[in-house]
Design a protein that fits this description.
Immunoglobulin-like; mainly beta; single chain; four-stranded antiparallel beta sheet; 3 domains
Length: 250
Amino acid sequence: MRKRGTNVVIFLSFLILLIIPLVSAGVFSDLWGKITGYGTSGTTTVNITIGNAAPTIGFVEVIPDLTPNESWTNTTTFNFTATDTDGFTNINVSSAQGFFQRGAETTRSDLSCINWSQSVNDVNFTCTIGMWYFDEAGEWTINVTIRDNNQATAENSSTSFTYISLKAMVMSPIALGWPEINLPDTDTGANENITINNTGNAVNLNISITAYNLQGNETLTNIFLQKTSLLKMSQRDVVEQQWLMQHQPM
């Protein structure tokens, strides 16, 4: 009986040693699945990356040449279309902006262009931008930008327009007056200065002044222009003093 018990113990030990590597190798679980018809179970981690297509701006409306409005702004509107192949709902409509740019000149802008229609992958926007009368004449670049909901951006600066040069001015007063002048009086200035404001964007107004001898109403004696001078002033500082000559523009 002792011999038989010993054999049983040896057999069980051998069986355990045989099963352990099979379990470790997964053979037992595969065999169990084949016998019972139940699949084995396990846990795994899968990472999925969803790509984002950046938006594009393929259309910007051409703006005809603009003429400044004297002493004020000239406001113009234009349209552009943004496209996103992920669908128009992926476009951040509140990010649409438009700019007019020229070198060192102050940029004119609309930071909240209006979304007025959308279809499939496209969104149409309208921007409204005002140009001041003193903005420099010449070619200005039209720049528009947009952003999608994933922070990808698009920009287009392929179009431009011409801001025309405007010569315009306002003079006040339109005539000068003097206090009463007597014979011994010298160096009597006018009651006021004439101020000329440039109300356009032309750099040189080419202003000329023509003077005439002053003749009395009752006594036909002339006050000759050799005794009259003109002070050119800028920002209230005297730039130049010139003597006026009869019938000679300056």
